[in-house]
Each structure stands twice: as structure tokens, then as C-alpha cells.
Design brief:
Helix content: 40-55%
Order of helices and strands: HHEHEHEHEEHEHEHEHEHEHEEEEH
Largest sheet: 8 strands, mixed
Number of domains: 2
Radius of gyration: 25 Å
Bound molecules: alpha-L-arabinofuranose
Strand content: 15-25%
Number of helices: 12
Shape: elongated
Structural class: alpha/beta
Low-confidence stretches: 18-39
């Protein structure tokens, strides 16, 4: 299938030759020639700047985008991996502008620092759809719309679950000694989840011992947790800002001869996580090794595709589209959490639920 970039090039070549004809003969019909040059089923070109490949969530997200933007569906997807570097993502966006893509989709590694390049996309007249993490811009008109998760709400859900679960164990606020393995610093996923924990620690008087970045990876999660277990001898909760970090933390806990689980009175370390994408992590949640996972849904491909279809049809998509997400736990003692007067049910995990999930 021919794409719109080729069509634009053909049309401009046609225009040049028509102009030559007009100049040579003094007359001519550019309209017919343009119609002949524009095939009915030209592909829509989408430039996607993915931030990297740090986690299982990210792999599922990239796959979802690739599945949504196929040739059969009328798209050409130009996929660029930013390798966790904002500078690489900015270079990719500039190359999309040069290529004259129809849409730019950006999964930003960090929240800040996008204004200049988004001004360039605006000047080029290319709609930009932000996906997953958010950007912080001086002016919201610099991007067309955003779809992703409410990371702060995710953090609040995790903390409210912890508060309720600790009560069922007869523990009060100052019995909880928590460490946080943070995600990539400056990403909206990290900012929202960390803010949730800090607010609830303040509210309930939890002993938040340390917060250290684990970059959303298993290797860093293990390294950071191993160090924290040496530094503090009373940790009983580890708040991991994604599944991969949680897997690394569990390895470190076991290597230190401790047990990851929910029996706080008998010295267990309660592991909390976000995502629910990694298969080992969800199985750990089923057997109680991970106490609670707040879902972060990676399947944004069809959502972004639907936004582009709306734009193609001349419609206006919602500026911000939040995805509904649940909490998983196999501990039945907490069945719901309430945040700002809204009750969110906990999905009590079973094998059947795992088998029927979309990822
Ligand atoms: O932005 C979403 C976060 O990024 C996911 O929680 C994490 O696994 C990923 O790397």
C-alpha cells in the first residue's frame, strides 16, 4: 500500500510538472492529474516514539501498538526506541517531522522538557498524541490529546489497601517500616506513585525509611533492595513501583534469608507492586508472595488507533482519557478501597481470572 508521504511527494512532483506545463502552454488542469496521482487507499503514517524496553509492561505496550497499526488496517508505523533517553526521543520526533508523517505518538520517558519540540510539531501541523505517561507543558495546546493511567490514583489505591490490610493484622501506623523502590525519576508514573506513598505515610504516620530509584528494572530492584536490607533491620513493607522491581526485591529478600508474604506479625516482608503484566509477578500475587498489585494497563494500541480514527473523521477526541484499572490481591481480608469517597473493589485473584485476562 502506498503511504501518504509518497502521495504528498507525488502530488508535489505533479504540481511542479503541471506548473511547467502551464508556463509552457499557458493552460492545463492540475485537478485531474492530482486525482489520478492519489490512490484511494493510501496508508496513514504514524511515527511512534517509544521510550524504551525496560519492563514487561513496556514490551506489552509496544506489541499492542504494533498490533494496532498494521498495513492491513491501513497504517504504516514508524517505531523508534528512545532507550530511556529524552534526547533520543526528541531526535525521533524531529525525524518524524522531516519525513512528514501524518501523526506522532509519544510515550515520554519523563514529564518535563518537551515544549520546544512540541512547538516544532505544532508549527509543522502534525497532531501529537501522548500515550501512557504524561507531559508537563506550559501550554496544553502543544499536544492533541493524551491516553494513559492515573498514576497518582494507582499510588493512593495501593496505600489505602496497605492501611486496611495492616489493620486486619492488628498493626497500627507506626508499626509499618516502609522502603520505596521508585521508577524512573521524573516520569509521571514515578511521580504519581511516589506522591501517593508520601501522602499516605504522612496521613497514617508510617515510617517511610528510604526512597531510591530502581529504574523499573528487575536488576536494579534486586540491587536496591539488597542494600536496603543491609541498612535497615526492621523493613516490613517494600513498595515497588512496578512488577520487575518487585521480582528483583523478592530475590533480594530470599537471598537475605527473609520471607516475602503477608504475615507481618511473624516477620514477613509485604511486597507491593504495580502493573500486573509480568507472568511471574501475577503468579506471585496468586500465591501471596506479592501482597497486592495495582493494575497498570499497557494495551493502549487500540485506544490510540481509535483516537486517530476520530481525528481522521474530523472529530475531536477527549483531551485526557484515563484508563480504568483494578487492584489484585489473593488476600481476602480487604475487598475494596475508598479514595475521595469513591469505592474501588479489589479483584481477589484466582487462576480463572489470570487465565481470562487480556495480558
Ligand atoms: O509508565 C508505565 C510504567 O512504565 C509501568 O508501570 C512500568 O512497568 C513501565 O516501565
Amino acid at each position: 500500500m502506498i503511504n501518504r508521504i509518497c502521495v504528498k511527494r507525488i502530488l508535489s512532483a505533479v504540481c511542479v510538472s503541471v506548473m511547467c506545463c502551464i508556463m509552457a502552454t499557458g493552460c492545463g488542469s492540475s485537478r485531474n492529474e492530482e486525482e489520478n496521482a492519489s490512490p484511494a487507499n493510501e496508508a496513514i503514517v504514524v511515527g511512534f516514539s517509544q521510550l524504551g524496553a525496560e519492563s514487561d509492561w513496556r514490551s506489552a505496550n509496544s506489541e499492542s501498538m504494533r498490533d494496532a497499526f498494521t498495513e492491513e488496517k491501513g497504517y504504516e508505523l514508524i517505531f523508534e526506541d528512545g532507550q530511556q533517553k529524552q534526547s533520543k526521543q526528541i531526535t525521533a520526533i524531529r525525524s518524524f517531522i522531516q519525513q512528514g508523517v501524518d501523526y506522532i505518538v509519544l510515550a515520554p520517558v519523563t514529564q518535563d522538557g518537551w515544549d520546544s519540540v512540541l512547538e516544532e510539531t505544532r508549527d509543522a501541523g502534525i497532531p501529537v498524541i501522548i500515550v501512557d505517561r504524561m507531559v508537563q507543558t506550559a501550554n496544553d495546546d502543544l499536544f492533541t490529546c493524551w491516553v494513559g493511567s492515573d498514576f497518582h490514583l494507582e499510588g493512593c489505591k495501593a496505600c489505602e489497601w496497605l492501611y486496611r490490610y495492616a489493620r486486619t493484622q492488628g498493626m497500627s501506623g507506626d508499626d509499618l517500616h516502609i522502603v520505596n523502590i521508585q521508577g524512573t525519576i521524573g516520569s509521571s508514573a514515578q511521580i504519581g506513585r511516589t506522591a501517593g506513598l508520601e501522602e499516605y505515610s504522612e496521613k497514617y504516620g508510617w515510617d517511610l525509611r528510604e526512597e531510591t530509584p530502581g529504574d523499573f528494572t528487575q536488576a536494579k530492584g534486586r540491587e536496591v533492595m539488597a542494600q536496603m536490607l543491609v541498612t535497615y533491620n526492621n523493613i516490613n513493607v517494600v513498595y515497588c513501583e512496578n512488577d520487575n522491581e518487585a521480582l528483583g526485591a523478592i530475590e533480594a529478600i530470599e537471598a537475605a534469608g527473609k520471607h516475602a508474604g503477608g504475615d507481618l506479625k511473624n516477620g514477613d516482608i509485604l511486597v507491593m507492586s504495580f502493573d500486573g503484566v509480568n507472568e511471574d509477578a501475577i503468579n506471585y500475587c496468586l500465591n501471596g508472595t506479592i501482597a497486592c498489585i495495582v493494575e497498570c494497563n499497557p494495551l493502549h494500541g487500540p485506544r490510540v488507533e481509535s483516537i486517530i480514527s476520530t481525528l481522521e473523521a474530523g472529530g475531536t477526541p477527549d483531551k485526557l482519557e484515563y484508563v480504568n484499572e483494578t487492584l489484585y490481591s489473593s488476600y481476602e481480608s480487604v475487598d475494596a478501597v475508598t479514595i475521595d469517597s469513591v469505592a474501588y473493589p479489589v479483584t481477589i485473584l484466582t487462576q480463572d481470572i489470570i487465565d481470562t485476562r487480556a495480558y
